[in-house]
């Protein structure tokens, strides 16, 4: 295991996390189709579209997990680590940021409103 620090990517931590999440999802065998290009887009507009799509996919995945996490069985922390490969702290940071977005409210309004109420203590 290397002790060298990881290289910092350009952009915000949220953008880097969204791209890492999209890359991990794309690496799964069920997401690879015959004849799909694996090269990164060279068009800046396409890169922005990929980033937006990755962010929306991550928001949906986190909200879907939060809505049905009890079906995973066992401890929630273990399920988070298994599903996303994140610590529970990172998961709750991502969830907290996700519920502030219009995409989250559009995807699952009841869950988002419930989580906002719980977070705000109302």
TrEMBL record:
<dbReference type="Pfam" id="PF11662">
    <property type="entry name" value="DUF3263"/>
</dbReference>
<dbReference type="InterPro" id="IPR021678">
    <property type="entry name" value="DUF3263"/>
</dbReference>
<feature type="region of interest" description="Disordered">
    <location>
        <begin position="30"/>
        <end position="52"/>
    </location>
</feature>
<protein>
    <submittedName>
        <fullName>Uncharacterized protein DUF3263</fullName>
    </submittedName>
</protein>
<feature type="compositionally biased region" description="Low complexity">
    <location>
        <begin position="37"/>
        <end position="49"/>
    </location>
</feature>
């Amino acid at each position: 295991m290397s002790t060298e620090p990881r290289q910092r990517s350009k952009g915000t931590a949220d953008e880097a996390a969204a791209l890492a999440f999209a890359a991990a999802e794309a690496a799964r065998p069920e997401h690879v189709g015959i004849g799909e290009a694996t090269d990164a887009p060279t068009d800046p507009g396409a890169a922005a579209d990929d980033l937006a799509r990755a962010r929306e996919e991550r928001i949906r995945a986190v909200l879907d997990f939060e809505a049905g996490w009890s079906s995973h069985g066992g401890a929630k922390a273990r399920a988070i680590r298994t599903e996303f490969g994140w610590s529970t702290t990172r998961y709750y940071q991502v969830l907290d940021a996700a519920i502030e977005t219009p995409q989250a409210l559009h995807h699952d309004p009841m869950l988002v409103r419930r989580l906002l109420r719980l977070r705000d203590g109302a």
